Amino acid sequence: MTESLVVHVVDDEASVRDSLRWLLESVGLRVCTHADGEAFLAEYRPQTCGCVLLDIRMPGLSGIEVLERMAQDGRRVPVIVFTGHADVPLAVRAMRLGAFDFIEKPYSDSLLLERVQRALSMRRETRDREVALEETRRAYERLSARERQVLAGVLQGRPNKLIADDLSLSIKTIEVHRANLMQKMGAHSLADLIRRVVQAGIEP
Amino acid sequence: MTESLVVHVVDDEASVRDSLRWLLESVGLRVCTHADGEAFLAEYRPQTCGCVLLDIRMPGLSGIEVLERMAQDGRRVPVIVFTGHADVPLAVRAMRLGAFDFIEKPYSDSLLLERVQRALSMRRETRDREVALEETRRAYERLSARERQVLAGVLQGRPNKLIADDLSLSIKTIEVHRANLMQKMGAHSLADLIRRVVQAGIEP
DNA sequence: GGCGGACTAGGGGATACCCTGAATCGTTTC
DNA sequence: GAAACGATTCAGGGTATCCCCTAGTCCGCC
Of the residues A128, A161, A191, which one is the last residue of a structural domain? Predict the structure, then answer.
């Protein structure tokens, strides 16, 4: 299942986009180009697969600003920053914003390809885990308000009786909500449920 | 409880160590100096508090190698790398190894102090959480072999009856081990136990 | 009017939890 | 050597809790 690994190229110069596209496609990679930061962010989703080649010097949003925006909603795509006007503070800033790598122009084709392959293989490694986390978050979104209230109680380790008291419901009703939310969350046991929720970072 | 925040200075030149000590102590910080990477790693523990100022160019272990060693057993101390022979690839390498910051010599005193304060405040923010995780790990270390086997079954969501079958023991025995390990782990409920274990990264 | 989802609830069997009691075994301590 | 301690094993009995099946109401939608 490595089909959907796309290299997203973000650069304002068409010549750079074209040469990168040619280079990457020459080794069989799928490429998607974006002329500026806004255009890329408009298409970007946290669950986007593949990796990103991001220029720093661009009109409009700079690459640093793009990194900041991506960091806000939990980036999972590795981003390789490349720029012709590199210095140490800039590289440090990009890396602190979670960039996967930082390449100075001019770069050799082989170096860039190697870094791209490294980013893609990291992405592949972490992909399954993140897909599972996304599924958990989506499942949580599908819970009803009552089910989330019950889940909150369950996560606090409260027995059904106390959850029932909190919500002024009968124990039997809590049991049903509990069974339903287990079903919806795809959990096979209480341990499974809590592990999924904790790992997905859900804290109601 | 900010008493034990120490700035660890690792540099082979005594003059640098002395001037950094003077600078840091002049603003009331506690300082501990180390003449090389080996000496520092010998004293370093993952739960060490404070932050580290690490030179790259040193005889013996380089700063990069020190970072690699620290990364192996889960560094939690923020490390500020500083070097007089900086270039972008070196900075990127250090940051990829999890350095908190990267400063070029010569640096201004105020810049260095600001970065140190930033590292210390990050350390303070994450400290309580990590202390709790450490306690969980230590508690797990104190479990007996049988208790860990039972815990493994509990984490898989298996009911006591099945755990008993797996280990060819009676349900009553499983109940005892389970109660004992809950006690030892300081867990107030099954949900609490699982959250602690998952967050501490324990996967038997 | 029917259909599905959310919410509510009871009965009964299985399971977990707590208390008391007890035996064996190995290590440490006095 | 005796005593103390912790780990491990098992049992009975009672209470609390959980889980599955069944079943009713309400509401929005086709």
Answer: A128
**Quick one: tokens of A68?**
């900041």
Q: What is the pLDDT of residue B2?
A: 42
Name the pTM for this structure.
0.78
The share of chain B scoring above pLDDT 90, in percent, equals 69
In a domain, A32, yes or no: yes
Count of CB contacts below 8 A, A vs B?
Answer: 68
Q: Are A190 and B189 a contacting pair at CB < 8 A?
A: no
Residue A2 pLDDT level (bands cut at 50, 70, 90): very low
Per-residue pLDDT of B127-165, as tens digits, reads 878 888 888 998 999 998 999 999 999 999 999 999 999
Model pLDDT for residues A120-177, shown as the tens digit of each residue: 999 888 887 888 888 898 899 988 888 999 999 999 999 999 999 888 888 899 999 9
Distance, in angstroms, between A122 CA and closest chain B CA? 13
| Tokens (6 digits) for A144 | 């009803």
Asked if A103 and A172 sit in the same domain, the reply is no
A43/A89 Cα distance (integer angstroms): 29
Picking from B81, B88, B96, B111 by the largest number of A CB atoms within 10 A of its own CB, the best residue to mutate is B88
B202 CA to centre of own chain:
15
A137: in domain? no
Q: How many CB atoms lie within 10 A of CB B179?
A: 10
Tell me: do B149 and B116 sit in the same domain. Answer: no
Give the CA-to-C1' distance from A162 to C15 in angstroms: 19
* Chain B touched by A111 (CB under 8 Å): no
Chain B residues close to A91, C-beta within 8 Å: 88, 91-92, 95
Over residues A16-63, the pLDDT tens digits come to 999 999 999 999 999 999 999 999 998 887 777 889 999 999 998 999
Q: Cβ contact (<8 Å) for B101 and A88?
A: no
Q: If you compute the radius of gyration of chain A from its CA atoms, what whole number of angstroms results?
A: 22
Closest CA to A63 of A11, A115, A112: A11
Tell me chain B's radius of gyration from C-alpha atoms.
22
Number of independent structural domains in chain B: 2
